């Protein structure tokens, strides 16, 4: 049993907040919603925000004086975009101020046996991202089988992932404890000889009770103290509401929803 099992809900909520990539990847999200998201992240001290590429520049401007990092998504959510477009989008995102690139592994290509094509996209994004962190979304809900999930995680690590991330949140099955256990097993097997590779649980994580499940799993597998923003993230659009409820923090954001598009 780890420290996490002894933590109060309040302590879990504080840890989840520090590790949160506050996400808005809604299909009809607006510039105003993204600016409000950035202000909310800065106000409460999340690890990062995760937004569509077209909002990176304005969001990065809002967060310029803040430690909150800016993450964006490429090859998202299909995992099937042409490599040239994925590279161009990555380069533009970095130029616009992104600190972290969340790329979808070409998981359909992997499932079809085309490992080289999947690896080529990861190599190209790793290269285009320069020194910025790359998180590889393996879309574990579509891979289903634990052996296939482990294989995808190993491919991601072998091709430069700083984090292995479960899900886009756009498929019927998102993060599950079983998928998390399979990925964490791969990360644990890397040992101390290499730079640590982090884990990001994403998709469908809404409550502090959900967060506790993944934090305890990560500490059981990786050891006490491993859950920190450098190696552990939650990608979630709704989790912050429950974190603030547990922490009894009133959210002062009064931004009105807007219909304008960026
Ligand atoms: O990368 C993160 C996911 O897109 C967020 O999914 P969610 O809206 O279910 O929290």
From TrEMBL:
This is Deoxyribose-phosphate aldolase. Its EC number is 4.1.2.4. CDD domains: DeoC. It comes from Salana multivorans. It holds the Pfam family DeoC. Signal peptide: none annotated. It comes from the Bacteria. Pathway: Carbohydrate degradation; 2-deoxy-D-ribose 1-phosphate degradation; D-glyceraldehyde 3-phosphate and acetaldehyde from 2-deoxy-alpha-D-ribose 1-phosphate: step 2/2. The keyword Lyase applies. Keywords: Lyase, Schiff base. Belongs to the DeoC/FbaB aldolase family. DeoC type 2 subfamily. SUPFAM superfamilies: Aldolase (SSF51569). GO terms for cellular component: cytoplasm. InterPro entries: Aldolase_TIM, DeoC, DeoC/FbaB/LacD_aldolase.
């Amino acid at each position: 049993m780890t420290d996490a099992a002894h933590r109060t809900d309040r302590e879990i909520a504080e840890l989840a907040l520090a590790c949160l990539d506050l996400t808005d990847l809604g299909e009809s999200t607006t510039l105003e919603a993204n600016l409000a998201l950035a202000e909310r992240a800065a106000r409460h001290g999340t690890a990062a925000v995760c937004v569509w590429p077209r909002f990176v520049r304005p969001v990065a401007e809002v967060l310029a004086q803040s430690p909150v990092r800016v993450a964006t998504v490429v090859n998202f959510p299909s995992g099937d975009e042409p490599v040239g477009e994925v590279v161009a989008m990555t380069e533009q995102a970095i130029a616009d101020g992104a600190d972290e690139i969340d790329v979808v592994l070409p998981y359909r290509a992997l499932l079809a046996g085309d490992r080289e094509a999947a690896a080529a996209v990861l190599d190209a994004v790793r290269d285009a991202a320069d020194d910025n962190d790359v998180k590889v979304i393996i879309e574990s809900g579509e891979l289903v089988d634990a052996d296939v999930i482990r294989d995808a995680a190993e491919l991601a690590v072998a091709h430069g992932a700083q984090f292995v991330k479960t899900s886009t949140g756009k498929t019927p099955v998102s993060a599950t404890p079983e998928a998390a256990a399979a990925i964490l097993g791969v990360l644990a097997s890397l040992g101390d000889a290499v730079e640590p590779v982090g884990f990001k649980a994403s998709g469908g994580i809404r409550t502090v009770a959900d967060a506790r499940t993944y934090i305890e799993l990560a500490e059981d597998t990786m050891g006490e103290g491993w859950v920190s923003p450098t190696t552990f993230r939650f990608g979630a659009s709704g989790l912050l509401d429950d974190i603030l409820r547990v922490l009894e923090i009133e959210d002062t954001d009064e931004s009105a929803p807007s219909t304008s598009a960026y």
